[in-house]
């Protein structure tokens, strides 16, 4: 093969095509030859690409075919031909065994375009292939419609389904299942039921995915009671279901609706039927009880889960620890933490922080600091929240030097605290709550030092804490905008003042009038 490569710049397109044709029965050599030419500077055209694609289609080398097609898709503007030109070239040489070549190519193209979410292009291919008397395989169409739904383009998926049916697509059970998912995502359960009816009319038996998807859709839209009825009816009719998942979505649905006793009954029923459940349904119920303040019931369910041999995790444990602390049972939270730790259960930085906060509030800052050292010993890197909790604990006890030392350690470890959080910690350590004036001073500082984006961040944080900016705050930020040349943003903030019912003073009005004149002269 080396003698081909040595003549790369002397080769003509026709010679390359002829060489590839002679290597049809040796696809590995053909593919190597094609790539080596490209590496050595040869510019492949539509004919040479069509030749290698024919070979890859015939030997069903899907991955290599995918890579070639993706290369064409990304470089289409520079290659001098369009993807659809490949169909024209390949159609010219169709012979008996190649009768399915165009179908294979269309399937591969659909897959390639969908993988990079170029949906408009793939839909164009679907409808253009009809001129050759076929449409891509049902598997490719299903792949497209399912990915559209996953990307939130539900209406487009439904439109593609209807158009493909008009073009003669024969849907299978997975196609119908995908459409049931689409209508459930939209909350259109009447249409979803219509798909079931359509399946029965064409004698396609609904699969487990179809029923489970329908149940999930009902539960996601606050109709868990009906979803549970469908689940029970499906079991009675011996309709195949993904039982573990179906029971999970029903349990989670009831928990989301805060119907926790109903969720507990469904969990018990699943256990009664011998359905093997995992952490998720138990976790949903535990979090539900924690959310409504019934921590004792949450602990009971957790113990039951553990006794059934189902491992807990740090997400569930965080909910339990937080709930105990919210109920004022900090001491019990610390004991539960120690219990879980002694069981060898992995506890992340969030779990550690909940307990460290409880210890700090109880005045046991040194014990909380020991947890920080324990984390380091377990190769768990403390985050800014862990450090902030402990710094706050030192501040509450008036141990400023210790707080500063921990602050320096935090900075050395690459955690850069927000200046507002640091100032708030200092003030809280002195028993002072930051007010609008404090935030305005910081905004003014950033505006004066030309750090306008930090000023905006502080402004947003102030609002997030529930504080209402006053005239001075607005004036400070508007002036900062004007100083930095952000005139449109200054005008927008001025309008926001009016919407909030804050009357500007003459200085603010004068500044805004100047902004308007500048903007007007700039654009008009």
UniProtKB/TrEMBL annotation:
<feature type="repeat" description="PPR">
    <location>
        <begin position="278"/>
        <end position="312"/>
    </location>
</feature>
<dbReference type="InterPro" id="IPR002885">
    <property type="entry name" value="PPR_rpt"/>
</dbReference>
<feature type="repeat" description="PPR">
    <location>
        <begin position="435"/>
        <end position="469"/>
    </location>
</feature>
<feature type="repeat" description="PPR">
    <location>
        <begin position="470"/>
        <end position="504"/>
    </location>
</feature>
<dbReference type="InterPro" id="IPR050872">
    <property type="entry name" value="PPR_P_subfamily"/>
</dbReference>
<feature type="repeat" description="PPR">
    <location>
        <begin position="207"/>
        <end position="241"/>
    </location>
</feature>
<feature type="repeat" description="PPR">
    <location>
        <begin position="348"/>
        <end position="382"/>
    </location>
</feature>
<comment type="similarity">
    <text>Belongs to the PPR family. P subfamily.</text>
</comment>
<dbReference type="Pfam" id="PF01535">
    <property type="entry name" value="PPR"/>
</dbReference>
<protein>
    <recommendedName>
        <fullName>Pentacotripeptide-repeat region of PRORP domain-containing protein</fullName>
    </recommendedName>
</protein>
<keyword id="KW-0677">Repeat</keyword>
<dbReference type="Pfam" id="PF12854">
    <property type="entry name" value="PPR_1"/>
</dbReference>
<feature type="repeat" description="PPR">
    <location>
        <begin position="383"/>
        <end position="417"/>
    </location>
</feature>
<feature type="repeat" description="PPR">
    <location>
        <begin position="172"/>
        <end position="206"/>
    </location>
</feature>
<dbReference type="Pfam" id="PF13041">
    <property type="entry name" value="PPR_2"/>
</dbReference>
<dbReference type="InterPro" id="IPR011990">
    <property type="entry name" value="TPR-like_helical_dom_sf"/>
</dbReference>
């Amino acid at each position: 093969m080396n003698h081909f490569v040595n003549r790369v710049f002397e080769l003509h397109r026709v010679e390359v095509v002829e060489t590839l044709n002679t290597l049809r029965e040796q696809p590995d050599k053909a593919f190597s030859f094609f790539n080596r030419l490209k590496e050595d500077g040869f510019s492949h055209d539509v004919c040479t690409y069509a030749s290698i694609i024919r070979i890859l289609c015939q030997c069903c080398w899907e991955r290599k075919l995918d890579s070639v097609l993706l290369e064409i898709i990304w470089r289409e503007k520079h290659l001098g031909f369009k993807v659809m030109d490949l169909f024209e070239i390949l159609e010219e040489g169709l012979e008996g065994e190649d009768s399915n070549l165009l179908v294979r190519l269309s399937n591969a193209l659909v897959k390639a375009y969908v993988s990079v979410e170029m949906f408009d292009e793939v839909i164009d291919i679907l409808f253009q292939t009809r001129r050759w008397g076929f449409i891509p395989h049902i598997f490719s169409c299903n792949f497209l419609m399912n990915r559209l739904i996953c990307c939130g383009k539900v209406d487009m998926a439904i439109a593609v389904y209807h158009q493909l049916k008009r073009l003669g697509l024969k849907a299978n059970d997975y196609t119908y299942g995908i459409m049931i998912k689409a209508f459930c995502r939209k909350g259109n359960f009447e249409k979803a039921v219509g798909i079931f009816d359509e399946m029965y009319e064409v004698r396609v038996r609904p699969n487990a995915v179809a029923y489970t998807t329908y149940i999930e859709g009902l539960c996601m839209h606050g109709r868990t009671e009906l979803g549970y009825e469908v689940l029970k009816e499906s079991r009675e009719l011996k309709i195949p279901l993904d039982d573990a998942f179906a029971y999970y979505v029903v349990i989670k649905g009831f928990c989301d609706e805060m119907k926790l006793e109903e969720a507990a009954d469904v969990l018990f029923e699943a256990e009664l039927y011998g359905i093997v459940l995992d952490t998720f349904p138990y976790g949903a119920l535990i979090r539900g009880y924690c959310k409504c303040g019934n921590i004792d019931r949450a602990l009971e369910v957790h113990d039951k889960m553990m006794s059934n041999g189902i491992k807990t995790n740090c997400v569930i444990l965080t909910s339990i620890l937080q709930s105990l602390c919210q109920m004022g049972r900090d001491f019990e939270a610390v004991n539960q933490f120690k219990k879980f730790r002694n069981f060898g259960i992995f506890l992340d930085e969030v779990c550690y922080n909940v307990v460290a906060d409880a210890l700090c509030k109880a005045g046991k800052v040194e014990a909380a600091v020991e947890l920080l050292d324990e984390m380091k010993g377990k190769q768990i890197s403390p985050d800014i929240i862990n450090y902030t909790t402990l710094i706050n604990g030192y501040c509450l006890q008036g141990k400023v030097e210790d707080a500063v030392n921990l602050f320096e350690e935090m900075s050395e470890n690459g955690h850069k605290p927000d200046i507002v959080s640091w100032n708030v910690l200092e003030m809280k350590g002195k028993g002072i709550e930051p007010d609008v004036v404090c935030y305005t001073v910081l905004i003014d500082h950033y505006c004066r030092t030309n750090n306008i984006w930090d000023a905006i961040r502080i402004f947003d944080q102030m609002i997030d804490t529930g504080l209402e900016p006053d005239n001075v705050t607005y004036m400070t930020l508007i002036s900062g905008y004007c100083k930095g040349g952000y005139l449109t943003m200054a005008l927008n903030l001025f309008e926001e003042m009016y919407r909030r019912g804050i009357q500007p003073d003459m200085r603010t009005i004068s500044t805004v009038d100047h902004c308007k004149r500048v903007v007007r002269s700039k654009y008009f």
